[in-house]
Amino acid sequence: LTVRFRSCDGNKKIHFGSSEPEDFRVGEDGVVYAERSFQLSAEPTEFVVSAQDKETQQEWQMRVKLTPEPAFAGASEKDQRKIEEIIFPWQQYKHSSPLKRQKRDWVIPPINLPENSKGPFPQELVRIRSDRDKSLSLRYSVTGPGADQPPTGIFIINPISGQLSVTKPLDREQIASFHLRAHAVDVNGNQVENPIDIVINVIDMNDNRPEFLHQVWNGTVPEGSKPGTYVMTVTAIDADDPNTQNGMLRYRILSQAPSSPSPNMFTINNETGDIITVAAGLDREKVQQYTLIIQATDMEGNPTYGLSNTATAVIAVTDVNDNPPEFTAMTFYGEVPENRVDVIVANLTVTDKDQPHTPAWNAMYRMTGGDPTGRFTILTDPNSNDGLVTVVKPIDFETNRMFVLTVAAENQVPLAKGIQHPPQSTATVSITVIDVNESPYFVPNPKLVRQEEGLMAGSMLTTFTAQDPDRYMQQTSLRYSKLSDPANWLKIDPVNGQITTTAVLDRESIYVQNNMYNATFLASDNGIPPMSGTGTLQIYLLDINDNAPQVHPKEATTCETLQPNAINITAVDPDIDPNAGPFAFELPDTPASIKRNWTIVRISGDHAQLSLRIRFLEAGIYDVPIVITDSGNPHASSTSLLKVKVCQCDLNGDCTDVDRIVGAGLGTGAIIAILLCIIILLILVLMFVVWMKRRDKERQAKQLLIDPEDDVRDNILKYDEEGGGEEDQ
Questions:
Q1: pTM of full prediction above 0.85
Q2: Please, what are the domains in the chain?
Q3: Residue 595 CB neighbour total at 10 angstroms
Q4: What angle do CA 683, 688, 689 make, to 5 degrees?
Q5: 646-672 tens-digit pLDDT
Q6: Residue 140: which of 131, 128, 123 has the closest Cα?
Q7: Which entry of 216, 373, 684, 725 is 20 to 30 Å from 716 by CA?
């Protein structure tokens, strides 16, 4: 049963006690339990329950009398326990007199019914009665969830006696309380009493074990954590009433594996489930994971009456950087051929006890000495954590035969506080440079030579030699050969590298670009393997006045009259300044007809105008010689023939049709060929006409030989009749 204490001020903190603690125990919530199993006698058993104020120690007492329930339904009336009656509140009814104030409704205390009762059923609870049942025949009923609403049929009432009963065991975890309403009506269904509310509370029993939210809980804790470090929280739930001891859970650790360095590395808050460290010495390098068995017990952890359940807590010890990298050797060795780059010359190995592939394990390498010019770098292999010493700049054996590097290794993250080891490890790397056969090289490259054009074949131009960088290799002298000579002007001596000409150097050659001529030569050694190098010789050709100017264009057209008859001409000279313009233009003295018929006037340094001196010159083709002199020192001049076509012109100054053909630049042979073609075409046309006429004459002769009787024209009859006869319809 449950005892309750209510103080006037409602603020007292009460502790319940029992006069028979070996038989009965009273919880803080007033629930009375049997401490042991025993048989009650037929006589009522009595004991005293006390309520003591925790602050003032004031105490109140009440007596509890326990009566055994009947063993079977047919027990005698004396053996049956007395059923409590609930009487409908009395109220006044109006008659002829004025209305009277009705009596205030009673407050019906709730009915407490333990869950999981074993019966027998139906089990009587209370009796509903109206004090008017003495004068009227009444019928009682109950409504609400559990009676006539789902779940129906749990509570029933005898309509005659008003006996309210429960028909089966109740489960507080499904429904904690029922709210019913009792009714009283007469035989005609008229309401006799106002309905009264009945509350039935289901008293919780400890019938549910605690259940963890997860069977396996995972947590982490950094290695080296101090005692009191929070790790994780485990949580269990109990379906029983959390306001009673049935639902009050307590946690504890049953076991820890492994048990090193201490069997009690962790503790748990028995109320909240928080797991914290309780001892020092967590070291991931020794123990990487702990497994705890956690137990949750209700009844506030009472091992005798509480129900328990267990779960597993797996705690992983996470790594911190408490171990620096350490080189496996004090000195590492490597070698590299000279002039090679992007080559791994040495592997630096380290050991680190921290968890692989984490910032606390990943190594970073740096050079602290021995490489002032930055010819090496150290990369980290992400898989093995090795340091890869790599060449990034070419190394010359003749300059440096060996390097001694000082390197250091440290982690990506700094060491944890309190670690006594040095944060980095150092080592020495000895690298030997291997001599290899290197290519010869020309000095300078390219080599520029300035030379006047016109240098005759067989002349010595220059000496173009190479050097061999391999000073410590025993090999013969270099051999030279020509690799590229577009104009085939040069040759090189294979021993001493002397270059001579094989043809006249001409600046105006098509192989010369911007006065520059390029030739490539090859120098080879006899090393193992043989090596060669190339060099470019650039010849800057200086211009000499070796080209006379020429007239341009070579042909021109003018009219046979004086006006308009000016011809513009231009002087062209392959040479450059000062061996080119301005130019002088003049007509030769012979033949005399040239100056008699023509005149020339310079209009600029490169241009002149040729025109007729006489009023009329017969149409035809004339070769006019023109003497052009450049400004070189000495001067160069030439007589150029300008072919002038003189033609008849129309009013616009254009040549007529025939003369246009001549003016188009056709020669005498071409004109004769055209005329011959025209004559042949005319002959063919005449022959065709003669053949056609001859054929017509032959046809007429054949017609005269035909007999007149056979003339088809005489066989045509004409009747001069049109239309049909009378009978023709």
A1: no
A2: 3-71+80-88 (2.60.40.60), 111-203 (2.60.40.60), 211-318 (2.60.40.60), 326-434 (2.60.40.60), 441-542 (2.60.40.60), 550-647 (2.60.40.60)
A3: 15
A4: 100
A5: 888 877 767 774 544 444 455 667 788
A6: 128
A7: 725
